[in-house]
Structure to design on (326 residues):
């Protein structure tokens, strides 16, 4: 949002989450180009992980979650394809979805050069068509699940359930509740830059944070002040914190069973990534549909029950305002 300095002074003191913005502008072409440089950097693990850590994550997903069996994988929020391309090299076919144009362009170029069995789609994962019974594993990692409004997060899980095969697996890597709280409680700060992620021109960046303890939500506001014109651009992002028990319940309500918690994508503690943990669920043979009012279990066995299952799913998706995928 474009503002001036008077707007900045008169800003709302306590913003409502997801109203002023959902996240920083990953989907803006120029911003996504600058962000791509951070994704590919081997100096930090901020936008993406460094190669050594990614290799270990991919090895755990392949060996432990997939048993080394060639599988179809859905990588939601895939960025520049750093996980997808490595998983493909281990024999898996991968569909990656991300709404960053620069990241998707890079991933497609890398896949073409390698002849990789990967498809990369530029789309918002809340609205992308993912089909039905297509994938053996779906993954949404690096805390991206937390950035969605709870209604959107639940809808994503439902769509993933539809997209997975009958015994498919979902992998979520989420921020710990303490990590989200610390983000919300961080002190207001500012710095000056001759050009960086938020602008290629000289600017000041002011950041303020808010923690809503009753709702377990952190909000971040960014004000980018152009040094030459004084024009202010506002960005905002929100993160929903979840306890382990809340996530177990959410997965159960959206049709997943055999839920397990892991300290990291290594399968063991990762001191350098202590702000994250991993939750894995398996698509339940008895589809649980939560339409926000009641829960209906539908047995998958038999043609009549299969037709009933699809009818119930269709009704639930229409109730959410989501068109039937596939």
């Amino acid at each position: 949002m474009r503002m001036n300095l008077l707007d900045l002074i008169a800003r709302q003191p306590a913003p409502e989450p997801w109203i002023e913005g959902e996240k920083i502008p990953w989907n803006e072409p120029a911003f996504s180009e600058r962000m791509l440089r951070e994704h590919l950097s081997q100096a930090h693990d901020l936008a993406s992980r460094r190669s050594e850590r990614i290799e270990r994550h991919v090895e755990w997903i392949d060996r432990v979650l997939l048993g080394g069996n060639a599988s179809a994988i859905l990588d939601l929020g895939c960025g520049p394809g750093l996980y997808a391309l490595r998983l493909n090299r281990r024999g898996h076919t991968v569909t990656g979805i991300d709404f960053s144009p620069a990241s998707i362009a890079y991933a497609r170029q890398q896949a073409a050069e390698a002849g990789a069995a990967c498809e990369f789609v530029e789309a918002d994962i809340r609205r992308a068509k993912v089909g039905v019974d297509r994938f053996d594993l779906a993954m949404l990692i690096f805390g991206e699940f937390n950035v969605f409004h709870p209604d959107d997060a639940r809808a994503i899980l439902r769509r993933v359930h539809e997209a997975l095969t009958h015994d498919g697996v979902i992998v979520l890597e989420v921020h710990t509740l303490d990590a989200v709280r610390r983000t919300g409680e961080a002190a207001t700060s500012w710095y000056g830059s001759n050009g960086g992620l938020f602008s290629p021109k000289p600017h000041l960046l002011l950041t303020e944070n808010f923690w809503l303890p009753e709702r377990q939500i952190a909000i971040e506001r960014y004000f980018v002040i152009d040094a030459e014109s004084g024009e202010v651009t506002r960005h905002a992002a929100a993160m929903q914190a979840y306890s382990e028990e809340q996530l177990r319940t959410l997965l159960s309500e959206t049709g997943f069973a055999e839920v397990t918690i892991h300290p990291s994508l290594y399968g063991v503690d990762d001191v350098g990534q202590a702000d994250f943990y991993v939750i894995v669920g398996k698509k339940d043979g008895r589809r649980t549909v939560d339409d926000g009012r009641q829960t209906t279990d539908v047995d998958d066995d038999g043609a009549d029950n299969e037709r009933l299952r699809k009818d119930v799913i269709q009704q639930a998706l229409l109730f959410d305002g989501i068109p039937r995928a596939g």
Summary: The first helix runs from residue 5 to 9. The first strand starts at residue 2 and ends at 3. Residues 291-326 have pLDDT under 50 and may be disordered.
